Amino acid sequence: MDIGNRLAKQRKKYGYTQKQLADKLNLSQQIISNIEREASAPDIHFLKATADLYKITIDELIGREAIYETKSSTEKQILDVVREMNDYEKELSLGLVNQIVQNRKKNKDKNR
């Protein structure tokens, strides 16, 4: 799949029309249309802003999802949940995960 189709697919996945996406990115609808039809190529600023809006990486935006290819189903679910969190929620979650790891290490040491 070419990049224009991938970008259109992502836009639709997130429920935006070309006009809505253009408004959110402070661009014209024509620019979005041109990129999706591959009449023009997206620049790095467009890719970054779009990926940030969707809370995904540029690699994921353009279809390079290697991170998912190597992860288990549970790891994929965790990544999906984390992507939806704000920074504060991520910090809290990291603290909880660190506590779980520390408890696991303590229990492992007790069983030796």
Automatic annotation (TrEMBL):
<dbReference type="Pfam" id="PF01381">
    <property type="entry name" value="HTH_3"/>
</dbReference>
<keyword id="KW-0238">DNA-binding</keyword>
<dbReference type="GO" id="GO:0003677">
    <property type="term" value="F:DNA binding"/>
</dbReference>
<protein>
    <submittedName>
        <fullName>Helix-turn-helix</fullName>
    </submittedName>
</protein>
<feature type="domain" description="HTH cro/C1-type">
    <location>
        <begin position="7"/>
        <end position="61"/>
    </location>
</feature>
<dbReference type="InterPro" id="IPR001387">
    <property type="entry name" value="Cro/C1-type_HTH"/>
</dbReference>
<dbReference type="InterPro" id="IPR010982">
    <property type="entry name" value="Lambda_DNA-bd_dom_sf"/>
</dbReference>
